[in-house]
Write a structure and sequence with these properties.
Elements lengths: L7 E5 L9 H10 L4 E8 L4 E2 L11 E2 L5 E2 L19 H13 L3 E7 L4 H6 L4 E3 L5 E6 L4 H17 L4 E5 L21 H8 L4 H9 L4 H17 L6 H14 L1 H24 L5 E5 L16 H7 L2 E5 L5 H15 L5 E5 L9 H13 L5 E3 L7 H5 L6
Parallel strand pairs: 1-2, 1-13, 2-6, 6-9, 9-10, 10-11, 11-12, 12-13
Antiparallel strand pairs: 2-5, 3-4, 7-8
Helix pairs in contact: 4-9, 5-8, 11-12
Length: 395
């Protein structure tokens, strides 16, 4: 199969297709003017509201199994971190039924290290902040066992079905402010604080830093002092102040800047390893960030230009409230990547983003004018019928 990316794909979950007639689902997607589906082959926990769909099975609110795989993995390939196939065979079957239909290009949307299930089972492999607090939802890719799990998962998926491509999400460290059950704080979030709290100083990260001449212990101590001082003060940094503090710390603290680069190198190494071990005919794309704007992707360890070089391209969630912000972000992203042909766009044609048809069309055509050719839309099961129907106008 060609490694050419489909031009217009729809993100979806297996629970929105399981139990339905797959042929009619494919008919529905094709009628929207789309030519591909990006199906979650592995996914994390969540809570999702589902508007009604023809033939839909189940209710309006879905709580997915955490860390589940939506295919039949080769369990023997997994070592320190095990594979967890979804408990419902019907949901594991969806990918095979879509492949058998064959009318849509099929991409495996693969969540990697954002996995609370495995984090709870193996707390020694989770990211740990400067105080040693573990983040159960974030496996640390500097840990060799985590790195190996990610490579095994990606390559296992790639060889299981005739996927046209894999789309890797969360190949790095989850940011501190990424959502968790019943989060509580009586301190307002800001970019500087979230960055400091999101740095991982686990044993593997500290050892890797020391091997490259970075004083990890000293850096962790400075992070503790800075954050503790802020938390003890009766202040709230405004967004521009927090951004300036972060820029100054990156400029003035050489170990901090080097530590960030170390994380980026690790994520690039991981994606490069996956690419080398996958079948060459299966394309590989990376969602490098959940950050807005995209330029902050380094917070998760992603280097846009480097990832675009070691994969077939980066898929950017242009999750913005209007077309102007989408296009501005894309201009900067293309500048950093260096090639518009290596940038694929993900748009949300409903709230909280481009819920207005004019904004959706403006964003879509504005991105095409910049040279972006491949588009995906999020998400089949969660969009209201009128939002989904707006995709027809983009053909």
């Amino acid at each position: 199969m060609s490694k050419t990316n489909p031009q217009r794909s729809l993100y979806t979950y297996a629970w929105d297709i399981a139990g339905r007639d797959v042929e009619s689902v494919v008919d529905e997607v094709l009628e929207l003017g789309l030519d591909g589906i990006k199906l979650a082959a592995s996914y994390h926990a969540g809570k999702f509201i589902r508007p009604p769909r023809p033939g839909q099975v189940g209710g309006r609110v879905v709580f997915p199994e955490d860390g589940a795989l939506y295919f039949e993995p080769t369990v023997s390939r997994y070592k320190a971190l095990p594979a967890h196939p979804h408990s419902d065979p019907a949901q594991r079957r969806v990918a095979y039924d879509l492949a058998a239909d064959g009318r849509l290009a099929l991409s495996a949307w693969t969540i990697l290290f954002h996995n609370s299930r495995l984090g709870e089972m193996h707390p020694e492999l989770t990211a740990r902040n400067a105080w040693g607090d573990g983040y159960v939802y974030s496996l640390c890719p500097m840990q060799p066992a985590v790195f190996d799990y990610g490579v095994t998962l990606a390559t296992d998926i790639a060889q299981t079905l005739p996927w046209q491509s894999l789309t890797l999400e969360s190949p790095g460290w989850a940011p501190f402010n990424h959502g968790y059950h019943h989060e509580f704080a009586q301190v307002r979030s800001n970019l500087w604080l979230d960055t400091m709290l999101g740095l991982c100083f686990c044993g593997a990260c500290s050892q890797a830093a020391q091997q490259r001449g970075i004083d990890a212990a000293g850096l962790a101590g400075r992070v503790r002092n800075r954050v503790d001082g802020y938390l003890a003060a009766n202040i709230d940094a405004a967004p521009d102040q927090a951004g300036a503090w972060l820029a100054a710390d990156l400029y003035e603290d050489a170990d901090l800047a080097a530590f960030i680069k170390l994380r980026q190198n690790r994520v690039t190494e991981f994606v490069s390893t996956v690419r080398a071990e996958m079948k060459p005919e299966v394309a590989l794309y990376v969602i490098p960030t959940v950050q807005r704007p995209t330029a902050q992707t380094w917070l998760e360890g992603s280097d846009l230009a480097a990832l675009a070089k070691v994969s077939d391209g980066v898929e950017i969630p242009f999750y913005e409230p209007n077309a102007g912000r989408v296009i501005a972000d894309a201009v900067d992203t293309i500048r950093r990547v260096g090639d518009a042909g290596k940038v694929c766009a993900i748009l949300r044609p409903g709230v909280p983003d481009l819920g207005d048809g004019a904004d959706l069309g403006g964003a879509y055509h504005g991105l095409k004018a910049l040279g972006i050719e491949a588009f995906s839309f999020y998400n089949y099961g969660m969009l209201r019928p009128d939002s989904l129907a707006r995709l027809r106008s983009l053909a």
